[in-house]
From TrEMBL:
Gene source species: Cellulomonas soli
Pfam families assigned: BPD_transp_2
Signal peptide: none
Protein name: Xylose transport system permease protein XylH
GO MF annotation terms: transmembrane transporter activity
InterPro entries, per the entry: ABC_transp_permease
Keyword tags: Cell inner membrane, Cell membrane, Membrane, Sugar transport, Transmembrane, Transmembrane helix, Transport
Bilayer topology annotation: Multi-pass membrane protein
GO terms under cellular component: plasma membrane
C-alpha cells in the first residue's frame, strides 16, 4: 500500500473519528487568528486546562454510559452534592482536606450504586432514573448546605485544582520538569502505537505504511511538546492535568483492553446478542453507573477546589456539556460506538470555542447558540454516516 493510498484509507475507514481531529485543529487555528494569538498564549492555555478539567472528567465517564446505550442527566447535581459534602467535612466541621476528598468519593459511589440499582436490577430506563436523580441530588445539596454557600477551603484543598508542579529541574524562564513529563508521555505514546501496529500486522490487519506511521507520531509529538512548551512558560504542570491524564490513560485501557470494556460495547451494540453471548448485562450496567458516580465525585472535588467553596447551584448544566463532548467526539446516539479519546477531543472543542468566544467578547447567549448548533450538526453527521453505511450494504 502506497503512502497516498494508506493516507486515504486512514481518513475514509472512519470518517467520523478522523474528521473530529481535523475539526479540532481547524477550530484552534480559527480562534487563534480571531483572537490575534491570545488563545494559544501560555497563560490562556493554562486557564483552559483549569477551567474545563471537570467537564473532561465527567465526559470520561459519560462516554462509557453512552456507549452502553444509556444517558446520565444527574452528573451536574452529583458534582454539587459531592462538593457540598466535602465542604461540610472540611469547612464546617474543620476536618482535614483529605477527609473531605474521601467523603465526597464515598457519596459519589453511593449515588452511583443507587442509580445503578434502579437501572440494572429494577429495569427503569436510565433517562428516567437519572432525571429523578438530577432533582433528588440537587434537593439534597440544598438541604446539606442549608441553601447557603460555604467557603473557603484550606490551601491544601485548593491545590487540587489550582496547584502546579514546577521547579524540580530548574529552567531559565520556563519549567524543565513540565517538558520532561510531556516528553516521557510522547515517548510512551509512540511505544504504545508501535506495539499496536505490530499486533495488527501479526493478525494480518491493514495498517498505514511505515513512513506515514512515523509521520503521524512525529506530528503528535510536535503538538504535545508545543503544548508543553506553553505550559512550561506559564506556571508549570497543573496538578489537575495529572489527574486528568491518569484518568484518560486508565479508562482508555479499561474500554479497549479489558473484558468489562468489551462487554460495555457489546451491550450498546446489540443487547440481545450480548445476553445470548453470556454477558452479565445487569452487573455491567450496575458498575457503569457506580463508575459514573465516582467520576462525578472527582469532578465535584475539582470544581469545589477551583471555586474555593460549595454553592447550591454548582454543577448547573454540566451534564449537558459532558454529553455534548461525547457526541461531538464520535459517540453514537444508539450506543455501541465511542472512545474516551474522542470524548476528550469533543470536550476540548467545546472548551476552545467557549474560551475563544469569551476572548472575543461574544455574548453568552450567542455562545450557547453556537454550541447548540455544533452539537446538532455532530449528531446529524452521525445519522448521515449510519444511513450511508446502510445504503452501501
Amino acid at each position: 500500500m502506497t503512502a497516498l493510498a494508506a493516507l486515504k484509507d486512514v481518513f475514509t475507514r472512519n470518517l467520523r473519528q478522523s474528521g473530529i481531529y481535523i475539526a479540532f485543529v481547524a477550530i484552534i487555528g480559527l480562534f487563534a487568528v480571531l483572537t490575534d494569538g491570545l488563545l494559544l498564549s501560555p497563560d490562556n492555555l493554562t486557564n483552559v486546562v483549569l477551567q474545563y478539567s471537570y467537564i473532561l472528567i465527567l465526559a470520561t465517564g459519560m462516554v462509557i454510559v453512552i456507549i452502553a446505550g444509556h444517558i446520565d442527566l444527574s452528573v451536574g447535581s452529583v458534582v454539587a452534592l459531592t462538593g457540598a459534602t466535602s465542604a461540610i467535612v472540611v469547612i464546617q466541621n474543620g476536618g482535614p482536606w483529605w477527609a473531605g476528598v474521601l467523603a465526597a468519593l464515598a457519596v459519589g459511589l453511593l449515588v452511583g450504586a443507587w442509580q445503578g440499582f434502579w437501572v440494572a436490577f429494577v429495569g427503569i430506563p436510565a433517562f428516567i432514573v437519572t432525571l429523578a436523580g438530577m432533582l433528588l441530588f440537587r434537593g439534597l445539596t440544598l438541604q446539606v448546605l442549608d441553601n447557603i454557600s460555604l467557603s473557603p477551603f484550606p490551601a491544601a484543598y485548593q491545590k487540587i485544582a489550582g496547584g502546579f508542579l514546577n521547579g524540580f529541574f530548574g529552567g531559565n524562564g520556563y519549567d524543565v520538569f513540565t517538558l520532561v513529563v510531556f516528553a516521557l508521555g510522547a515517548v510512551a505514546y509512540g511505544v504504545s502505537q508501535f506495539r499496536t501496529r505490530q499486533g495488527r500486522l501479526r493478525y494480518k490487519q491493514s495498517v498505514e505504511s511505515f513512513p506515514l506511521f512515523i509521520l503521524r507520531l512525529v506530528l503528535v509529538a510536535a503538538v504535545v511538546m508545543a503544548f508543553a512548551w506553553q505550559l512550561a512558560n506559564s506556571r508549570g504542570l497543573p496538578i489537575v492535568l495529572i489527574i486528568l491524564g491518569v484518568l484518560i490513560m486508565t479508562y482508555t485501557v479499561v474500554t479497549t483492553k479489558t473484558v468489562f470494556g468489551r462487554h460495555v460495547y457489546a451491550i450498546g451494540g446489540n443487547l440481545s446478542a450480548a445476553q445470548l453471548s453470556g454477558v452479565k448485562v445487569k452487573k455491567v450496567n450496575f458498575w457503569i453507573f457506580v463508575n459514573m458516580g465516582l467520576l462525578s465525585a472527582i469532578a465535584g472535588i475539582v470544581y469545589s477546589s477551583r471555586s474555593n467553596g460549595a454553592q447550591p447551584a454548582a454543577g448547573n448544566m454540566f451534564e449537558l456539556d459532558a454529553i455534548a463532548a461525547c457526541f461531538i467526539g464520535g459517540a453514537s446516539t444508539t450506543g455501541g460506538v465511542g472512545r474516551v479519546t474522542g470524548a476528550m477531543v469533543g470536550g476540548l472543542i467545546m472548551a476552545v470555542m467557549s474560551n475563544g468566544m469569551s476572548l472575543m467578547g461574544v455574548d453568552q447567549s450567542v455562545q450557547q447558540i453556537v454550541k447548540g448548533l455544533v452539537l446538532l450538526l455532530a449528531v446529524a453527521f452521525d445519522i448521515f454516516n449510519k444511513r450511508r453505511a446502510g445504503a452501501a450494504r
